[in-house]
Amino acid sequence: MFKKKGVQMRMFIAMLMVAATMMTGCAQEQRQAKAATPPQQTAKYVFFFIGDGMGIPQRTATSAFLGRELCIDKMPAQGITTTYANDRFITGSAASATALASGQKTNINYIGVDPNLKAVKTVAEIAKQQGKKVGIVSSVSIDHATPAAFYAHVKTRKMYHEIDHALADSGFDFFGGGGLKDPTGKKSKKPLGDALEKAKKNGYKIIDDKADFMALKPGDGKVLAWNNWLQDGKAMPYVMDMTNKDITLPEFTSKAIEMLDNDKGFFLMVEGGKIDWACHANDAAASLKNTVAFDDAVKIALDFYNKHPKETLIVVTGDHECGGLTVGFAGTQYASNYDLISAQKVSFQKFSDEVMKRFRAENGDKASFAAVKPLITKYFGLKFSGDSKADKLVLKPFEVEMIRSAFERSMTGQKEESSSPETYLLYGGYEPLTVTLTHVLNNKAGLGWTSYKHTGVPVSTSAIGVASETFNGSYDNTDVGLKIMAVLGAEPKVQHIN
Ligand SMILES: [Zn+2]
After folding, report:
1. How confident is the model at residue 24 (pLDDT cuts 50, 70, 90)?
2. C-alpha of residue 266 to centroid of ligand 1, in Å
3. How far apart are CA 53 and CA 43, in angstroms?
């Protein structure tokens, strides 16, 4: 990919490598200095929360939207964490999760392996070897890049079938959240058999029903549980689309704690995966509400911490920022109107999958713009008449034109892929009407988006509990993994597996 872009890109990469080497040099000095400090404190219970795509703007906007501090912002230790990958400045979830899980900087899409494809041990595997129980929870599929990087070692995140088998072989005690993407190997060249059958043979109780899930009790053995409704890509639904039939991220976290609690302690990783997916689609309402649920899941861990403050560490970080979310927008100047976000009633996903699908079925491809206006008002709160000075949800003429133009594109069924640079900037490959509606509403609220992908800004890392002070300051994502190793009582260095 880089070759095509020629010398300039190679020079840029070379500069990045120099910068990366310099950063590594600084980190080594820090680690040497730490050798002289008092013995490392260790924790019996370690929680590792990862907000996928949760950068500083996501945290700031969610807090402003709620009108209060998040639990994670009140933690005593706060750090700034760089996220770059080995071979690209703007990282992806696989490379970043590998860094966070193992302390190893690696390439884009690599899972649990170094740039030479050698497997590296993860903090979850270290905890398991120590006799602790281990749990992995994610709101997206449980074989997605972030959770996979704690138990699998494969050259690309897309090897879902191999990852599913690694899950079945992991020996970990609790998996919960989203489903599996390729247990039977439909997309694999060399299918390994049914990973779910293997998981059953290896002692996992497989659950996809809320009542059965809630009835789980310690002593029921190993668990692989997912929410019954998997909305997109085998992921749990967006928080704003959930009903009381769905299992929430805090409920998965609470049950994981109940099932993992034992005399030898546990390690629990919880990922808020759809914070990222909503940011890719530039949907602030969906992202912020998922961030609230993520913070509520942390609160469940804080309740546990309050009962075991001298034996527990909770670490919270993001793997990277996503969407280039900015807390401020040219159209609103200095104003912030985050209450407008509440006018949106469904996620972008539900609006395009369900509302617009029904609209097309009922009205046909030649439906008029007038016909869709009531749906826009119902689901996004945006109004086509009234005084825009008195009511911020009233659309200005230029905003109506943007929406009309996107609607016409949507109705002609044109796929807005990256082949046209102009339409890519407008719609990012998403359903044109839906992404335009979130843009208009988010902009009115005073939020701006600059990308449909991740960005390179650093993230916040927060911690409370045993040795949490080691998470103060500024450090790299690989250091997060090494610091957790130290708190587990292991040597804080990358460990290759054979
Ligand atoms: Zn992403």
Report:
1. very low
2. 28
3. 27
Q: Assign 412 a pLDDT band (cuts: 50, 70, 90).
A: confident
Distance 452 CA to ligand 1 centre (A): 9
Measured in Å, residue 321 CA sits from the centre of ligand 1 at 8
Better-scored residue on pLDDT, 34 or 451: 451
**This model's pTM is above 0.90:** yes
Could you give the percent of the chain with pLDDT greater than 90? 88
Q: What average pLDDT score do residues 254-259 get?
A: 98
Clarify whether residues 121 and 250 are in a common domain.
Answer: yes
Please tell me the distance between residue 33's alpha carbon and the centre of ligand 1 in angstroms. Answer: 35
Same domain, 367 and 281: no
Report CA 228 to chain centroid distance, whole Å: 20
The CA 247 to ligand 1 mean position distance, Å, reads 23
Q: Give SS3 for 48.
A: strand
179 CB-near residues (< 8 Å, 6+ apart):
141, 142, 208, 226, 230, 234
* Domain, as residue range, for 482: 42-324+454-487
CA of 318 to the centre of ligand 1 (A): 11
| 429 φψ region: left (φ > 0), alpha (ψ -120 to 50), beta (else) | left
Find the mean pLDDT for residues 282-296: 98
Tell me the CA–centroid distance for residue 454 and ligand 1, in Å: 6
